[in-house]
């Protein structure tokens, strides 16, 4: 009988903490030892002393935070195991963005798999998700709601082919912008992609790691003013929201969140997270003895697995 430690991971004011190994996973504020799943700002904070992560995650953090990215980085590729405080740790691809990792923790013959953010839809701009069995699955539950179903990203992006107007396309700069760039290049080849200046350095990190097949141009005001059709300008959320008076173009925001589709000229439901059905399928593959949830609302998973698999809500 496996002896699962009920408080092996606990939520603290600084984020998820493993007392056994004395480290935090994806801390929300600076800590002595951080194991980081990926470089999004809600998972990778500044000024940690020692950071364990994948090489692309370090590159993104250094690009965004500079000297404040961390004092010491210890880098590991997928399936290259290492030890922190007596806990064996292995990064496994999460399929979320470039360099994103699930974190497998092994201690006293019990495995704990922290998913971080993950997706199962195909995305050539990052390594596909890897599946791994574990005794305890610690899953994000961002869209863990039975009413949530993400449509095909290919069918969604093809909506842009139904008109020729220029588009102001809102998207998160890390991960989503590169995925959209690829989808537009492949399925809307007549459209030209222009990038906001803040997204360009992220694209260049992608290129350093082999994602060098995206076609785009840095944004130039004249380019969009002189070309009134089939130009798509990808911008981060703050810029998108500031263009409330923009004319002669359509405003579209790529997200799985319904609230971010309101008041736009068209919906574009493209998410980099798993939906309800995908979470259930993933749990089936992992086949855990227990499920722990965080980063969202785990109550629906708790109800779904009632009397079948214990579900504990960490956040």
Automatic annotation (TrEMBL):
Keywords: Exonuclease, Hydrolase, Nuclease. The keyword Protein biosynthesis does not apply. InterPro entries: MBL (IPR050698), Metallo-B-lactamas (IPR001279), RibonucZ/Hydroxyglut_hydro (IPR036866). Residues 11-172 form the Metallo-beta-lactamase domain. One of its GO terms (molecular function) is exonuclease activity. SUPFAM superfamilies: Metallo-hydrolase/oxidoreductase. This is Exonuclease. The lineage of its organism: Bacteria, Pseudomonadati, Bacteroidota, Sphingobacteriia, Sphingobacteriales.
């Amino acid at each position: 009988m496996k002896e699962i430690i009920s408080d092996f991971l606990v939520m603290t004011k600084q984020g998820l903490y493993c007392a056994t190994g004395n480290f935090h996973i994806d801390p929300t504020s600076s800590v002595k030892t951080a194991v980081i799943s990926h470089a999004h700002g809600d998972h990778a904070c500044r000024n940690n002393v020692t950071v364990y992560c994948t090489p692309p995650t370090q590159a993104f953090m250094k690009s965004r935070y500079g000297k404040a990215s961390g004092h010491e980085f210890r880098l590991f590729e997928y399936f290259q195991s290492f030890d922190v405080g007596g806990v064996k740790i292995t990064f496994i691809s999460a399929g979320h963005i470039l360099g994103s990792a699930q974190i497998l923790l092994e201690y006293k013959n019990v495995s704990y798999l922290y998913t971080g953010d993950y997706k199962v839809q195909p995305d050539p701009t990052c390594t596909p998700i890897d599946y791994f069995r574990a005794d305890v699955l610690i899953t994000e539950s961002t869209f863990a709601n039975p009413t949530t179903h993400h449509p095909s990203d290919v069918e969604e992006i093809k909506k842009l082919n139904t008109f020729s107007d220029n588009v102001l396309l809102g998207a998160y700069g890390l991960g989503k912008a590169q995925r959209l760039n690829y989808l537009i290049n492949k399925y809307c080849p007549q459209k030209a992609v222009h990038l906001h200046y803040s997204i360009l350095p992220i694209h260049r990190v992608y290129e350093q790691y082999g994602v060098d097949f995206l076609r785009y141009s840095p944004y130039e005001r004249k380019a969009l003013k002189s070309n009134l059709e089939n130009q798509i300008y990808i911008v981060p959320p703050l810029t998108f929201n500031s263009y409330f008076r923009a004319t002669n173009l359509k405003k579209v925001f790529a997200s799985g969140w319904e609230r971010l589709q309101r008041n736009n000229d068209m919906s574009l439901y493209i998410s980099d997270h798993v939906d309800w059905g995908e979470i259930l399928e993933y749990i089936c593959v992992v086949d855990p003895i227990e499920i722990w949830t965080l980063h969202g609302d785990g109550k629906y998973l708790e109800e779904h697995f009632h009397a079948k698999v214990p579900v504990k809500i960490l956040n």
